Amino acid sequence: MNDTAQPTPSPHEQAEALFQQALALDHDGASPTDLAEAAKLYEQAAELGHPAAMFNLALMHQSGQLGKPNYRKAEEFYKQAIKQGHAASMFNLASLYHDGRLGEPDYIQAAKLYELAIEQNLPEAMVGIAFMYIRGELGKPDYPKAEERLLQAIDLGNTLAMLNLALLYKSGALGDKRLDKAQYWFAKAHEAGDPHAHLYFSNQLISDTGNQLQQAGVTQELCSELQDALDKLEFVFFTIREEHRVKKAIPLSHFTRWEAIESILSVDPNGQPKPGGNCLRQYHVDYMNDPTEGRRLLEVKPKAVALEEEHQTAKTSAKLKTLIDRHYHSQFDYCPDSISILPSVFVTSLTKESDRLDLWRAYGRDGDGFCLTFTPNMSEQDALRTMLSRANHEAFLSQSTNGDTQSRTPSEPAHDQPPPLYEIRYGDKEIAATLKRLAAPIERVEQLRDQLDNQALKNRVSSCMAAILLELLYLYKDEQYSTEKEVRALRVLHIGDPRIKADERHPGCLYCETPPFLFSSGKTEVIVGPKVAQPMAALWNIRWRLNKLGYARQASVRRSGVSYR
Fold first, then answer.
1. Residue 331 CB-density burial (10 A; 0-12 exposed, 13-18 middle, 19+ buried)
2. Per residue in 495-529, pLDDT tens?
3. CA dist 431 → 1, 194, 374, 470 (Å)
4. Pairing state of beta strands 344-351 and 510-513?
5. Which of 56, 142, 262, 274 is surrounded by the fewest CB atoms within 10 Å?
6. Domain ranges within the chain, ordered by starting residue
7. Which residues of 371-391 are buried (b: 16+ CB within 10 A; e: fewer)?
8. In whole angstroms, what separates CA 350 from the centre of its chain?
9. Nearest to residue 313, comparing CAs of 139, 437, 462, 225?
């Protein structure tokens, strides 16, 4: 039997073994003890010249995995790895200098390191230095150099470069706005898997309007200016709507009728679950009990003795009223058929209040109804996707595709996720502030629209404006309703959309449904109204349904505590 000694591992082999041991401990969910042990092993491997260990150790210090973020320590280990030619370390250290994590931003050092990484074909470094050229951090903005570096990164498959090149073309920084090139690279980024690229596409309504104008012989310059003005109007719309959006979990209540409860907790007489359910109904806005619904922004009048600013607010309100009444509401009266009719708004009304007498009277069938109280998890929504959502604009696209309502399917919220919810505003100051923000973009579109010499084309531009702004009308109500603290979910659908249903009444009222999120939102409470004729029958029937559907643990049922009078 030979007792041959094993050869001593080389320093490289020792370093790699230590690195692999560290990797096994450094993973998502690792305990502080494991991370500390991984750092020791990385450091031992780094001392033996292992660049990836130096890089990972720098990352641990930068991200705060070993306590508070320590950018100086990260700098130290990145520099060690850079001496070994480690490209990712060059990029990360450049980013620290670029972002000012080590004091004041050091653009010179950042650019040098980006260039070193570029020599090793690292696309992230190409994007990093392109940002510097765009922002003018190395002197004056140099958009052609930025374009060159972004194209270089694109050749290596970088989706962020595709997205930012599209934004560069859309901005007009390279001369004229190159909307066709912008759309091309947004589409490429989307195809390559960028999760947000499609949100930056020009609104198809706006693009279709621009194409129609071009086909009618309108100059390229005027078409481009009109599309840009409509884009800016839409961005103001997005910004205002986003300020209304509910962004955190808050208790909300919805008042409804027994037939809706049966639909939400849908089982057959034997207790077998039926398809659907667990969602709220969104009814056609024409059924709302406020006769001034959707008119708050349209009916602002100047006072007898008003400041100039108030006159301007009233003027914008009047413009908006003319726009909406002429190019939206009037179309319902004069539409020649039900195919060509414009899309309608559907609303779910919620409130931050719950078991309250005035709410039972107004919304709970005068006490003979039901109230569901729940806390939807809004934090899981993709903020950018929700802010830039055009789901309610998409319904209007059927009007530009020869009435083919099936040719496009409006975007849906994620399954089991609540729809975007928006707080209603009531105050005169809030109305005035909104109209003030809309004034300039509306005026700009009107100025360009009035340069058209064809009334049909002018109408097309106005209809596009009305479609863009429609949702805003339903985010404001008269101040007399302010105690309701209303929150809404809005949908815009064409009458032929297969998701529209008729309820149990005769004639049935039209509604669509939210995604099935109600009992996926944590604890839910069902309150039986104070004037329900057989409250105990209702209470036990709801408990039975909750058990059959598997919601019993996260839902409770009780009778209203309100004394009706």
1. middle
2. 888 999 998 888 999 999 998 888 876 789 999 99
3. 94, 37, 29, 15
4. unpaired
5. 274
6. 11-200, 243-559
7. bbbbebbbeebeeebbebbbb
8. 20
9. 437
The full DSSP string for 332-377 is HHH-SSSSSPPPEEEEEEEES--S-HHHHHHHSGGGTSEEEEE---
Q: Where are the alpha helices (DSSP H) in 219-334?
A: 220-244, 258-264, 308-324, 330-334
Q: How much is the pTM?
A: 0.74
Q: What is the mean pLDDT of the chain?
A: 88
Name the CA radius of gyration of the chain, rounded. Answer: 30
Q: Decide yes or no: CATH 1.25.40.10 for domain 11-200.
A: yes
What are the pLDDT digits (tens) for 144-199? 999 999 999 999 999 999 999 999 988 888 887 777 788 889 889 988 988 878 77
Instruction: Give the phi and the psi of residue 185 in degrees, each rounded to 5.
Output: -80, -30
Among residues 490, 472, 205, 210, the alpha carbon closest in space to that of 320 is found at 472
526 in Cβ contact with 533 (< 8 Å): no
Q: Which residues pair with 168 in a beta bridge?
A: none
CA distance 117 to 87: 5
Phi-psi region of 468 (alpha: psi -120 to 50; beta: other; left: phi over 0): alpha
Query: Can you tell me the mean pLDDT for 365-380?
Result: 87
C-alpha 343/C-alpha 303 separation (Å) is: 35
**Strands 422-423, 281-284: pairing kind:** unpaired
For the packed helices 51-63 and 87-99, what is the interaxial angle rounded to 10 degrees?
30
Three-state secondary structure call for residue 194: coil
208 is written with which tokens?
């279709």
Ramachandran angles phi, psi of 329, nearest 5°: -60, -40
Separation of alpha carbons 96 and 99, rounded Å: 5
